[in-house]
Amino acid sequence: MAPPMLRLSYNDIHNAIARTAPRIMSEFSPDLFIAIGGGGFIPARILRTFCKVTTDGKKRNIPIQAVGLTLYESLGGIEEVVGQEVVRVQWIDFSTLGSKLKHGGLLGRHILIVDEVDDTRTTLVYTIKEMQKDINKQLEAIEDVDERERLRATTKLGIFVVHNKLKPKAGEIPADVAYFSAVDTPDVWLAYPWECETDIEEHDMLRKDNPTL
């Protein structure tokens, strides 16, 4: 039996992220977003509206990088099933990471990985492991031992998801990785507005039929 559908509007997502952003800034202070495509693109852009970094006395936008990973197998429309293997189709463009590129682009930063939902957690665990590989590779290139350990200590990884499904996961998030979810939900079918292939107004109207969670 299929789980009940929970239709979500753009306003639902915007408001959920707005409520969570202050906690992300106070507890993690990200200075780089890594959006997991395609579900993480819109949440990352919304989150950037509420999260700014101050440089030379001016508030500036946090840069967004994208990684392309495929786990779901589309059935057409908004229905999908979970695949068995993560396929890496796009990774970080290190040449565009700005002034901190002298340390490889990742070292010394607070890096927040953004996705729409923590479902099985397979994609998030994969992303964390691959990011840690990149960080370790960049650390190995630092010859000065003290500088290397300083950068190791100041490089932080975090995760933000709009929805965390309260269900058994395929993996665990390392204890040193910060974790933020805007909304915790039961194991329901989340119908995001950017997946709507029909009338978006009808999609929003049908939210009145959402199950009571």
Automatic annotation (TrEMBL):
Entries under CDD domains matching the protein: PRTases_typeI (cd06223)
Gene Ontology biological process: GMP salvage; hypoxanthine metabolic process; IMP salvage; XMP salvage
Molecular function terms from GO: hypoxanthine phosphoribosyltransferase activity
Gene Ontology CC annotation, any one: cytoplasm
Keyword list, A-Z: Glycosyltransferase, Transferase
Protein name: Transferase
